[in-house]
Write a structure and sequence with these properties.
The complex is a heterodimer of chains A (432) and B (462). Chain A has 24 helices and nine strands. With 432 residues, chain A is α/β, with parallel strands linked by helices. Chain A has a five-stranded mixed sheet, with helices on both faces. In chain A, strands 7-6-8-9 form a four-stranded parallel sheet, with helices on both faces. Chain A is globular. About 6% of the residues of chain A have low confidence. Chain B has 462 residues and is an alpha+beta fold. Chain B folds into three domains: 88 residues, Uridine Diphospho-n-acetylenolpyruvylglucosamine Reductase, domain 2 (2-Layer Sandwich), CATH 3.30.43; 116 residues, 2-Layer Sandwich (Uridine Diphospho-n-acetylenolpyruvylglucosamine Reductase, domain 3); 190 residues, 3-Layer(aba) Sandwich (Vanillyl-alcohol Oxidase, Chain A, domain 3), CATH 3.40.462. Chain B has a seven-stranded antiparallel sheet, sandwiched between helices. A five-stranded antiparallel sheet of chain B has the order 5-6-9-7-8. Chain B has a four-stranded mixed sheet with strand order 1-2-4-3. In chain B, a hairpin with a 4-residue loop joins β5 and β6. The relative contact order of chain B is 0.11. The mean pLDDT of chain B is 95. The chains are: A alpha/beta (432), B alpha+beta (462). Chains A and B meet through α4 and α5 of A and α2 and α11 of B. The structure holds flavin-adenine dinucleotide and iron/sulfur cluster (2 copies). The site of flavin-adenine dinucleotide (FAD) has 38 residues of chain B, from β3, α5 and β9.
């Protein structure tokens, strides 16, 4: 670690972004972690200041800065509220990569990301054995699980009220397909995402049903890789790059109108994080492919309502009540808030009631939940209290990572609430 | 120099181990505030969870001669919470967030110092009452910080500033003794008006515990409008004419051409980019009076040469008017890496002269300055957009800031309308006041805080 100069130089690459923070402190109003701890190093302003100070060698311990940087949900609430338009999440991802490059990736993370996540085939096969390996794998997995997409690994940890891995993942339940455009004239590529594949395959099945009902042909390739955000948020750019390239292999240059996912985190990652990181990690041809794919990427709810014309219908008297939680990566990163609600309203058997603070983070944040479970839980408890206050029987959202967190909180607080993806609720209505 | 372990343990005993921070990264995160100044690392940060431990922490600092800086949300723009260079202790109030009571019969509330301004205003509104001071930072600023800075806001003209709402205060002196001043009654002349002294004291005379704040009934109706002017002079004359017609708008804001263009680029709200000035006006009160005042304001603006005036017809339109104002800082802040938000204030009638001076200063130093602010009370926010990493440019900025202050003083104005003096402006204080004022203030400080541990260096200098 003697070479702090070198680290300062590396941080110099993001200096232009760092100085755009004017230290106004307005992010304190929205940061869920700061809201729980009240510590400046937990809010965007504090983290950005620490990076600047490390860059100017005012402080000298990169490990402490890295640890503070990881106390973050990467929820983007700060960026969405920032008067100065600071690209906070972008800064944090780059800074994590720089610090990891300088300090090194922990051996456990190396094993998980490079040995496993970067090899989708092996990864899938191993996980199909997961329940049997629970005792064997728990510790390493705990130390290493990435962010939201990789968080299903925490299902291996027994004392929490986690959803267990699905008996069969989506890639076994739904065969790969390459259909022509449907009646709508549209052909849609579906990107499954790890959590949907392994924990909530029913969300993937609902997506397929909804797309087919709406007259869209589906392209669903086998052998999909993770979107890469778990690796990237741990600073592992090498694995991230590998995963992006694996996905480009499957999706780039294929003729489809849109790439949709039912995972808000995957959508935000492909649409924003891939192109944002492209300048640093990819060559010109790859950058072009990423840009083209990102431009076509959208959320399943938004595509169904905005493009395929699904609209709300009149609610029946006997309808069950449902309330909707806005995933940060959908509302704050992509500005998508009405569409999932409209999709729910398109099921006549459901009545949507709003909860207060619907767009406040649920506290999941992928690996954050593993490393800082207490804080994550406090944030989640507030969410579940808001959900319960509506009296709704169903808590809906549009990101499987939020579903994991809300399910955990619902069950710990006495159960009795179903947790569903908006597209599941819509698809239910198609068969009722 | 680090603090002795035994001393750190004493802080931990008082406030709890988890409330004391000494890690480099934690200390570094309390080395700055929203002012564009060099950071200074404290030696220790402590976050008391009770008022009682806040008092004991204050006493411990004094006993050991440790300079203590109380920090609310750290949003002040004058270096008010940058700790002392040696052995500085930063004391956080953001765990002291209890709204002790809201009294709807006697119209007051008792709060702890760490309560966030907007949360308090919302709690009062829930009980059907109104807390008017609304600094632009209200979503995060603390009431303790507001009182210590005597914060203003958009509603200053009609409703006054924080000091107009402080009915009483309890604070800890350097020995950790609880001092009480003012009370729960509208009238109270018991003892010195210490609350008057403590408001705006920027943490240099005492550490606030509970604060008693006045609440008022909310206005029944409000109407917002936007008037467009081809010259700054015409806009300023309209401001004067509105007041001369005995109308006191709740809000009367002005934006210069640069700000208008920048906001429009940013938010595409349809602002007239050719206009030299925009007035954003809101009148409130009883519905009939509001309608009448709004008509009068419209007529006056037209008479003073407004090229157009738009009265918001509903809540959505009203929101649009204020969105434009709220976007001012956001839009300007994106223009350049460093945003220096100044606060020079002049008598209302001198706004055109001050605006001209600002244009001259911007031209002289070839700097980008956008100005917006509270036209109703002469409180302007010339906002300098620059890059502090560029040393040559930064030198010019410093010179320009000097000139801005001198211009304001020459026009009978003041260094700071609401952002406080802190470290940033203390060297100009004598210019506005007098040598005698500084000496008198220093005597008060020396008597109340003999070891000079309470936020040393702020306001009156070292
Ligand atoms: C975007 C933005 C907009 C702003 N708009 C306005 C505006 O419209 N009007 C305005 O007036 N200001 C404005 N400000 C400045 C700032 O927000 C105010 O000065 C506010 O009152 C500071 O509150 P704080 O809680 O952040 O205090 P801090 O910055 O933490 O502290 C300010 C001062 O108060 C002292 N202090 C805090 N708590 C106590 C206590 N319990 N006892 C004794 N001393 C204490 C501190 O020592 C310090 O000297 C703005 C700032 C920003 C960044
Ligand atoms: S809101 Fe934006 S500019 Fe302000 S402190 Fe936070 S990150 Fe920095
Ligand atoms: S991304 Fe979320 S958790 Fe992280 S600093 Fe921003 S608001 Fe806080």
């Amino acid at each position: 670690m003697a070479d702090l100069r070198r680290l300062a130089r590396m941080l110099g690459e993001i200096d232009d972004q760092l100085v755009s923070c004017m230290r106004c402190g307005m992010c304190q109003a929205v940061c869920p972690v700061f809201g729980d701890t009240g510590r400046e190093a937990d809010v965007a302003r504090g983290k950005i200041a620490l990076l600047s100070q490390l860059g100017s060698e005012m402080i000298r311990d990169p490990h402490q800065v890295k640890e503070r940087l990881e106390r973050c949900l990467l929820c983007g609430s700060c960026a969405a509220a920032c008067p100065s338009g600071v690209p906070v999440v972008d800064i944090f991802l780059r800074a994590r990569a720089i610090l990891t490059a300088y300090i090194g990736l922990s051996p456990a993370k190396k094993l998980i990301f490079r040995g496993l996540l970067a090899r989708p085939g092996l990864f899938d096969r191993l996980l199909s054995l997961a329940p049997a390996m629970q005792g064997l794998f728990t510790r390493e997995v705990d130390a290493a699980a990435g962010t939201s997409c990789a968080r299903f690994q925490s299902s291996l940890i027994g004392d929490r009220h986690f959803k267990t891995l699905a008996a069969k993942p989506l890639h076994e339940l739904a065969a790969p397909r390459d259909e022509p455009a449907g009646a709508s004239g549209k052909r849609v590529a579906l990107f499954t995402g790890c959590v949907v594949d392994k924990v909530f395959p029913q969300v993937g099945q609902a997506s397929l049903a909804a797309l087919s009902r709406a007259g869209a042909g589906v392209y669903l390739p086998g052998g999909q890789a993770c979107c890469g955000i778990p690796a990237l948020s741990s600073g592992d750019t090498r694995t991230f790059r590998k995963l992006v390239l694996a996905n480009l292999e499957l999706y780039a240059d294929k003729p489809f109108d849109a790439l949709v996912t039912a995972c808000a985190t995957c959508t935000a990652t492909i649409k924003h994080v891939w192109p944002d990181m492209a300048a640093d990690l990819f060559n010109e041809g790859e950058r072009a492919a990423i840009a083209a794919l990102a431009a076509k990427t959208t959320d399943i709810c938004a595509y169904l309502t905005d493009v395929l014309g699904v609209t709300p219908v009149a609610t029946q008297d006997s309808a069950a009540t449902v309330t909707y939680h806005d995933p940060c990566h959908l509302k704050k990163s992509l500005g998508i808030a009405n569409q999932p609600r409209d999709l729910i309203r398109a099921n006549k058997n459901l009545r949507l009631v709003e909860m207060s603070e619907a767009d406040v983070c649920c506290g999941c944040g992928g690996s954050f939940n593993l490393a800082h479970y207490e804080i994550s839980k406090h944030i989640g408890q507030r969410k579940i209290a808001n959900i319960r206050a509506t009296g709704a029987q169903i808590a809906a959202t549009a990101c499987p990572a939020c579903m994991l967190q809300i399910a955990d909180m619902a069950s710990q607080s006495g159960g009795g609430i179903q947790v569903k993806h908006a597209v599941e609720l819509y698809a239910q209505g198609l068969t009722e | 120099m680090p603090l002795a372990k035994s001393l750190i343990d004493e802080f931990a005993q008082i406030a709890g181990k988890d409330s004391v921070m000494t890690d480099e990264a934690d200390l570094a995160s309390y080395s700055y505030d929203a002012a564009v100044l060099e950071p200074v690392m404290p030696a220790l940060v402590v976050r008391p969870k009770t008022l009682e431990s806040l008092g004991r922490v204050t006493r411990l600092c004094n006993e050991n001669g440790l300079p203590l800086t109380v920090r609310g949300a750290g949003t002040n723009l004058s270096g008010g919470v940058i700790p002392a260079r040696e052995l500085g202790v930063v004391v956080l109030t953001n765990a002291l967030t209890r709204i002790v009571s809201i009294n709807t019969e006697d119209l007051y509330a008792v709060v702890e110092p760490g309560v966030v301004t907007a949360k308090f205003a919302a709690a009062a509104a829930e009980r059907g009452l109104f807390y008017p001071p609304d600094p632009g930072s209200q979503a995060v600023s603390t009431l303790g910080g507001n009182v210590a800075e005597n914060a203003g806001g958009l509603r200053g003209l009609k409703y006054g500033v924080t000091k107009d709402y402080v009915m009483g205060l309890s604070f800890f002196d350097v020995d950790g003794q609880l001092v009480k001043t003012g009370g729960r009654t509208v009238k109270c002349v018991t003892g010195y008006n210490l609350a008057g002294l403590l408001v705006g004291s920027e943490g240099t005379l005492g550490v606030f515990g509970e604060i008693i704040l006045k609440l008022v009934p909310p206005p029944a109706a409000a109407k917002a409008m936007m008037a467009v002017f081809d010259t700054m002079d015409a806009a300023s004359q309209a401001v004067a004419a509105i007041i001369a017609a005995k109308i006191v708008p709740a809000t009367l804001e002005i934006m210069d051409n640069f700000t208008i263009r920048t906001v429009e680029d940013f938010s595409h709200a349809g602002l007239p980019t050719g206009a030299q000035a925009l007035l954003l006006i809101e009148v409130d009160g009883h519905a009939a009076m509001v309608a009448e005042d709004a008509d009068k304001v419209e007529t006056i603006c037209k008479r003073q040469g407004a090229s157009s005036i738009k009265v918001a017809k509903d809540a959505a339109e009203r929101n649009k008017v204020w969105e434009a104002r709220r976007a001012a800082l956001s839009a300007l802040a994106r223009v350049a890496p460093t945003t220096v938000l100044e606060d020079a204030t002049v008598p209302r009638s001198q706004i055109p002269a001050m605006m001209r001076a600002l244009l001259d200063i911007a031209a002289k130093y070839s700097l980008t300055i956008g100005t917006f602010g509270h036209a109703g009370d002469g409180n302007l926010h010339p906002t300098i957009l620059t890059d502090k990493r560029d040393h040559a440019a930064w030198k010019k900025v410093e010179a320009a800031i000097d000139e801005i202050f001198y211009a304001a003083l020459k026009l009978g104005g003041t260094l700071s309308g609401e952002h406080g003096i802190g470290l940033a402006k203390s060297r100009w204080l004598e210019k506005e006041t007098s040598r005698g004022t500084i000496l008198y203030s220093k005597k008060i400080k020396a008597a109340l805080d003999p070891k000079s541990i309470l936020n040393p260096g702020k306001i009156i200098g070292a």
